[in-house]
Write a structure and sequence with these properties.
By secondary structure, the protein is α/β, with parallel strands linked by helices. The strands form two sheets. Strands 2-1-5-10-9-6-7-8 form an eight-stranded parallel sheet, with helices on both faces. Strands 3-4 form a two-stranded antiparallel sheet. The radius of gyration is 17 Å and the shape is globular. The relative contact order is 0.16.
């Protein structure tokens, strides 16, 4: 049974300072929308902490030094620099990335120490498209991969399951763990859609589980994919820690995709993953914000996800 410990929320105002060009979907208003909904009375029992400034060297657990140096060198003193057609950096991006790393590693520390039941990191920019040595898809560093490597390196965790229900496939996370049987990466996502990866035939060394959905799919197809393809694999893997790439852009309101999930679907999958965490890893679960580009859909879905983590 789950104890009466709190759910930890990690956040920082600097996540508003990672700027993107006008009209870009991955914008600071996303963070404001999540912040506003978490002011509701039902969230007052959250254990709230300021995301610490993470040591950038921790990024080297998932990325080569050349990638870290390239990102650092492109940070401007003013304005916005485009790394590709979708991905950019601004003067505030470096601190945002450091605190995203700091949030994820602090969450891992506190969850593994048993100080909290679980944790949600309200961070940006997202990370799951960042490959080993390639920023793309709004993502600069792969925060969830860094968190997984950190849990292994600092805490000696042997088996980690990463579950990604963002509507876009986490090609970066798959790339980083492609040959690593100690990390199980499981993803539902729309295909065909950016970034074009995520076919069922992409299996790594047996540690990659892709369950693609089709445009127009909704709750039934999403839950079936989880029930048939993903949840049994996690159960068989028996992880010691579960990490979630919590993208909310499969919501029916989202402008970048055509999957029709509702808030209840996020409550359902969150509870399923919590049950597996209870069964295999003493409830140890950390969730990191990824996508979600309709502000109302994002806010309501994140609120539902966090409420479920709180066992509310």
């Amino acid at each position: 049974m789950r104890s009466a410990l709190a759910t930890l929320l990690l956040h920082h105002p600097c996540f508003l300072d990672h700027l993107t060009p006008p009209g870009h979907p991955e914008r600071p208003d996303r963070m404001r929308a999540v912040d506003r909904i978490l002011e509701a009375e039902r969230f007052q029992t959250l254990e709230r902490e300021t995301a610490p400034l993470g040591d950038i060297d921790i990024a080297l657990l998932a990325h080569p030094a050349s990638h870290v140096d390239t990102i650092r060198e492109h940070i401007p003193t003013s304005g916005i620099v485009q790394l590709d057609g979708d991905t950019s950096v601004s003067p505030g991006s470096w601190e945002a990335m450091q605190r995203a790393i700091g949030a994820s590693t602090q969450a891992v520390d506190e969850v593994l120490a048993g100080k909290v039941n679980n944790a949600f990191c309200a961070i940006r920019p997202p990370g799951h498209h960042a490959e080993t040595a390639h920023a793309m898809g709004f993502c600069l560093f792969n925060t969830i991969a860094i968190a997984a490597r950190y849990a292994q390196r600092k805490h000696g965790v042997d088996r980690i399951a990463i579950v990604d229900f963002d509507v876009h496939h986490g090609n970066g996370t798959q790339d980083i763990f492609w040959n690593d049987p100690s990390v199980l990466y499981c993803s539902t996502h729309q295909m065909p859609l950016f970034p074009g990866t995520g076919a069922t035939s992409e299996t790594g060394v047996g540690n990659i589980v892709n369950a693609p959905l089709h445009a127009g799919d909704g709750s039934a197809e999403f839950r079936e994919a989880m029930d048939i393809a993903i949840l049994p694999r996690i159960d068989a893997f028996a992880p010691e820690l579960i990490l979630i790439s919590a993208g909310f852009d499969a919501h029916f309101r989202d402008p970048l995709a055509s999957i029709n999930l509702v808030e209840g679907d996020y409550a359902w999958i969150t509870k399923k993953l919590m049950d597996l965490a209870d069964k295999h890893c003493n409830g140890r679960l950390v969730s990191l914000l990824e996508g979600g580009y309709d502000l109302e859909g994002l806010a309501k879905s994140a609120a539902t996800h966090i409420s479920t983590l709180m066992n509310a």
